[in-house]
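Support request, please re-run this one:
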Amino acid sequence: MLDTGLTNYQAGVRHDLIAADDIQDVWRGHIAEQVVAQELLTLNDKVSQRRKFWIKESSSAKVDFVITLDSRLIPIEVKNGRNSHLRSLHSFIDQSPIDIGVRVWSGPYSVDDVTTTHGKKSFKLINLPFYLVGSLPAVLKSEF
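Re-run finished. Output below.
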């Protein structure tokens, strides 16, 4: 779907959304990924663009989105408030030459220096609130 409102309507969760304290509870975080996917599509005017993601073979590790900015790969994980683990992002960074990652979440904006779970590598983690996804290129360029 091209619109989260239409997605919610089609799925028949209108009443659940109205009663929910947090809309992410209704979709267990999936609607958050839909919102971020739509925002990422608006950052580029190429009609043929596709959203990219990463899956580690023989594992359950998955990074929600991978974008390219100034010839750099940027992994993006979308997390709801209760599940903020970043094991897949850490795995991606351990296996790549990149030194920056993004977590889109409902928390405040911050930038942290993080060491991957296995201690292989240090990287910069940008914690980006949902409302700033449209400003992602500017945020990333300020951190390069």
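The two ends are 34 Å apart (CA to CA). The chain has a mean pLDDT of 80.
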